[in-house]
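User: Fold this; tokens only.

Assistant: Input:
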Amino acid sequence: MNFRTPILAVLALTLAQAIAACAAKPPPPPPVDNTPKVVVKEPTGEELLEEGKKLFDGGDMPNAIVKLDLAANKLGRNTEAYRLLARAHLAMGKKEEAISKYQRVNSLDPKDQEAILQMALIYNDLGRSKDAESWVEKGLINDPYNTRLLNIKARAQRRSGKLDEAIESVRRILSREPDNMDAYKTLSLVYIQKKDYLMAEHAIIQARKYDVNDASLLNNLGMIHTGKWQKTGDYKDYRLAIERFLEAVRLDPKFVEPRINLAAFAIKYRDYDVARQHYEAILQVDKNNAVAKEYLPLCYLGLQDYAKAATLLEERLKEQGTRRDPMTVYYAANAYEYVVGGDAKTNMIKARNYYKEYAALVSDPKARKEGQDKVSELEAKIEGLDMAAKAAADAEAARKKEEEAARKAKAAGLTLEGLAEQAGDQPAAAATPTDSAVPPAGGSAPAAAPSPAPEEKKPEPAPAGSPAGAAPAETPPAAKPADGGAAPADPSAVPAGAAAPAAAPEEKKPDTASASPTGGASP
């Protein structure tokens, strides 16, 4: 009997059991993560509102707007968030956005006087007098004797030309607040507009009792003296007007109205550089100021900086879109006609196209003919430039061809001097009329051709600058303009640098007497 078989069987069974036990053993548990978990808590609407307030108080308006927008969305009907949003937008000069937020405040609380007052003020600043008056009336329903609202109403009435109604609104204010400086200020503007300069000056005297250094009152005084000067021609009033406007600018360099008035005086006397400085200063404060944007290109035309004028006029035309002002188009054409530098033909083409557009926009027959004549004139200039360019190109091609032929001949030794050097003697003399191969009648041909007579030596011209015998140097032709056309005869005749068309719409002249929408004299 073999004893190994049972032992091997037992061993095999034991091994199988061990393998099965290992397979059935569960895997070890994963390591325990004892790191504390951070739970991000989303801020509440109240917390966002507080953050927005802090940013607003710190002057960080862009980030304040972000936080306040989030707060307004979370809080829903919270007027405080929308009111702060409106203030932040207003601080950034975004008046339309501010109106939208104030309207939201008004929809949540129709009796919120701040929203009504601010909307009336903004609409008045935008020149939307009807909207301003509408919001004032809403506010007066809640508070019939609110002097701030009445003052806005008086200003809106003045802008709308309702001068007697504006005076009545001011009287209502002064009946409750006899020392209201803003009411006297508004009253002075009303009387300036009525050209009653005595009453206007009296109103300013009353207002200056409360603030002698108010820049807007000085500007109004300047307008009074301007009106009196235009009425009487008294130089004293002209000088006083300039002094008051300058004093207002010194008190408040960012005050737009006195600069508009000073620029109007400068343009009247063709001091285009001074006018330019004022308009550029205005645009640094108010980049969308309509008066400065309209007249600044004309200053550059008056200074004969046609390239700068053309650039500014192009920007104006882009802003106008499809409803282009005919005179802006005319001045753009004028600028390109006389611009110096760049491609002359391109400038002429632009000028022609703008004159063509001007002729299509105007209704007056004389103005239209003026534009059409300019188109014909410029088309002739463009044709002349094309011909001159072709002639110059042909001349250059001929010159290069001659240079190439001479180079090749010299390289091959085919020049007259090169052939003589190769032959070792002088070149043969050309035949003269006496060297004819045909013998004279009745005679015989000569045995040899006679030698030509020695060439008579001509006296050399005296050098330039000799006291005697020196011929005057030829006067060079007068230089022509780069564009092939003549420069304007009187570039300062019109701010555009050339005479305006006889019947074109009259160029807008500064009228320092009439009050502008913001209180300054409208050019």
